[in-house]
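Weekly structure sync, notes
Attendees: PL (lead), two postdocs, one rotation student
Agenda item 3: pending single-chain targets
PL asked that the sequence for the first pending target be pasted directly into the notes so everyone works from the same version. It is reproduced below exactly as submitted, 311 residues in total.
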Amino acid sequence: MTNGVGMRHASFSRDGTKLAYSQGRRVSNVWRVPLLEERVATWGDAEQVTFDQAFIEFLDVSPDDSWVVISSDRGGNQDLWKFPAAGGEMIQMTSDPATDLGPVWSPNGEEIAFYSTRTGLRQQFIVPSEGGVARRVLTSEASDWSGRWSADGERFVFFSDRSGNLDVWIVGTDGTDARQITTHAGRDMMPVWAPTGDEIIFTSERNGPRSLYRMPVDGGEPKSISAIPASYARWSRDGQTLYWIEFGAASGNIWAVSPRTGTERRMTDLERKGGNLGTYGLAVTDSHLYFTWEEDRGDIWVMDVVTDETE
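Predicted structure, written out during the meeting:
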């Protein structure tokens, strides 16, 4: 009936002669709010960082806070782009026809790790932060997602279906010495390395809704951190606070917890605005929380329905 319209939702009139439809797309941009001690941050504190009619899924901030890297389809395909945190021109980092996602800066700021579908599976790659040819790190015949650097830059923690289930693994950044560290039948995902180097934080569905767990790098029984559903977590630079995106809420908020004391705190009040917090777009600096905000953009159209009888 249609071709190339970009239709998202549609409904026929009662007599079947008209079709009303929405034409548009899902848009996501980067925002940031200051880290506030005395109260939650609201939209009054928020600053919009990007203004694209594109979808940004992941983001990270360079160790010196001067650059932001994103995965965005602003060029028609999900590729990596970077731009100055103070504002400035977007620079394209990758241009492969495959999907490139999950960029994370190395601790020394010289490289960016990401995962890509270039091999037909999700696999880990590294590209110089100044630009250049990306190299493949992991060579398994399975999908490997969301590699995160250790503090010394010598290992990745990631999650993979190598075992037939989604579990957390550790591997050298040269692709050697891969080791599985979770074995539960539930799905374990989105791991991050604690800045202290001795602990892994990950999200899991092992006990119902997706939530945060912690476990020693050398193995051991994972322990629940929070009962509040979580999709994605990032550490503060000093390793004292863990921030995460609330999972499953209508619009979502960012929360924080001190693993040492167990004290939880909601950091944002992002209600009363159309859209929702991105599931995986979160980065933390000493002064700000960066996040993505997703919105549906579109228009309503009406077209005549042409049938064989009316032609």
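Discussion points:
- The longest strand covers residues 18-34.
- Residues 7-40+115-304 form a domain with the Neuraminidase fold (CATH 2.120.10.30).
Action: rotation student to compare against the earlier draft before next sync.
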